[in-house]
Amino acid sequence: MANFKRQSMKCYVPLMTLLICSMLPFGSGCRMSAPIHAWKPPQLGSAVGKQVALAGVQGPQELVRPLQRQLLSQAPKDPGRKLDMVSLEEMVAQESRERAQPSTKIQLVSALEEIPNDLAVASFARHQGIDYVLRGEVIQKRHASLQNQTDPGTLSVSWRLTGLDADSPGGGNPIVLDVKTARGIYPDLAFVSDLNEVLTQAMVRETFRLITPSVDRYQVKLEIPYLLPGSAKTRKGNRAAREGRWGEAEKLWSDVWERHPTQLAALHNLALAAAAGQEFSLAKKLARKAIRLNPSQLHKQTLVWIELKQRAYHQAFALPDPPEGWFLTVAPSRPNDPVGQLTQ
Prior knowledge:
Layout lengths: L1 H21 L7 E11 L10 E8 L2 H13 L10 E4 H12 L15 H13 L4 E11 L11 E10 L7 E8 H7 L9 H17 L2 E11 L6 H12 L3 H14 L4 H13 L3 H14 L3 H20 L11 E3 L9 E3 L2
Parallel strand pairs: 2-3, 2-4
Antiparallel strand pairs: 1-7, 4-5, 5-6, 8-9
Helix pairs in contact: 2-6, 5-6, 7-8, 7-9, 8-9, 9-10, 9-11, 10-11
């Protein structure tokens, strides 16, 4: 009897979904989400292809030493993100050895402290061909309560990037992390048993996001079709996309769209597949076609999302405007998180 009830429920749930979706406007379907990755520009300024001098981190040495060591050893080397990070302190010591003189008196201090020291650091770094100076300060380290000594608490570091050319961007940004947050952002750190190491590794990765392009994970809305030819195959593509198999999903949706031009869910989802492959111009072309055939809210939102991610991609890698131009008017005050409206 129990087995019969379970089998009945398996049939009942899809049937209810079918009835609900059939009540929506023709071609609009239902929605489900799928993960997609897209590039995000640096939060402070792009140091890609540049020399960055790490001018030290102020704070407790048991926190500072491993953080500085990993920053210097884990600088991005992959194309599009590569930079050279060097220790300004070691550069000062090296020059002193070459000149056989006592070490140059440059205090590697926080930018919030004495301005003359900042000027001395900038002058020396500029002389060495450095493009940016990065310095940090541990502004908070909240330890765990006495009842839970295994929790390292919260690590907070304030970073400041200084461009040594007049046109170079710069600025400051704090990063606050606890173990739960760190592992939420970087699931692979769940396998690191040393909790202080978890915080350090996550802080290093988050720090490089300040000065190099990074990849973020988003949830996009797929369209689910019912009562139209090609619906079953479109839903199969949706399942593949939900599991991150965007290439397989794209082939399924493309086949459906070629065979069944009324299946707008396949067309809409094809636009997202093109965006997943960073073919943004094609993605916008498909999304605009879906809007012309059915100007639903979902189709309009998808076109906006695609263009915002295309803008972020172009900004991250300093690319020119696409040949088709932009279809959004963007608020200039928030270039890293643009908000805009579709132009007619």
